[in-house]
Amino acid sequence: MADILLKTEKLCKTFSNGGAQQHILKNIDLELYRGDFTVIMGASGAGKSTLLYALSGMDTPSLGTVNFKNQIISDLSQDKLALFRRRHCGFVFQQIYLIDGMSVMDNVLCAGLLVNKDKKALLKKAKELFAAVDISDETQKKFPTQISGGEAQRAGIVRALINSPEILFADEPTGALNSKTGLDVLDTLTKFNEQGQSVVMVTHDMRSARRGNRILYLKDGIILGECDLGRYCRGDTARHKKLADFLQSMGW
User: Fold this and answer.
1) Are 78 and 139 in contact (CB under 8 A)?
2) Is the whole model's pTM more than 0.70, yes or no?
């Protein structure tokens, strides 16, 4: 039986716009499972990023609950939500947000020290993660402005994983990258997922979406449908067709 890691019930998000109520998420019931690579797709304005932020505790729902391993995180205070995110979640965004005045390694250690004060153990883990994403010792010493976009995004993934998050949330992680560097980032996310890391990713890109085993299609604030692609296998042309057919059926 699949291990439910996170669950929502009647999740709603509403914004006020000039006195009018804008309903972004509408009564979403969703279960996310440990070890899955879940992809959230949909047209612009469908509520994809809003859903990601609500699931991760970066934003609080207007109604409904977000339950993480039997803890209702949507009821937590902002301070407790910050602790929850720090200990259980990793984040990768389209914009990388590395601190320019710190080396690549120090960017990662700074995030790790928020949870683990053992700098020696953190340094060892950071080195292992950097090796896993093919970032050299020399590159680790550089500042973010001195490395390529692909290296910076892979360093961002290392920073997101330094505290061993139970879920890695990614919001358009290849959106600002060219085709080659974007592929490197997708390979990195796939590698960690194959090692057991749970991933939830928002994307507009079919190439990126094919890495997921579960595709959720969001439209007008509701989950219109989902598709089970199974585990990623490079060169699987049937996988591409199954995803294309599903997206077409959703009105993509």
Assistant:
1) no
2) yes
Q: pLDDT, tens digit, for every residue of 197-232?
A: 999 999 999 999 999 999 999 999 999 999 999 999
Question: In which residue are the tokens 């997206």 written?
Answer: 247
State the average pLDDT over residues 106-130.
94
Section 15-26 average pLDDT: 85
Contact 91, 161 (CB under 8 A): no
What is the SS3 assignment for 213?
coil
Domains and CATH numbers, the chain: 4-249 (3.40.50.300)
Cβ proximity of 154 and 140 under 8 Å: no
Provide the b/e sequence for 176-208 (b: ≥16 CB within 10 Å).
ebeeebbebbbebbbebbeeebbbbbbbeeeeb
The 8-class DSSP code of residue 47 comes to S
Q: What angle do the packed helices 119-132 and 149-161 form, to 10 degrees?
A: 140
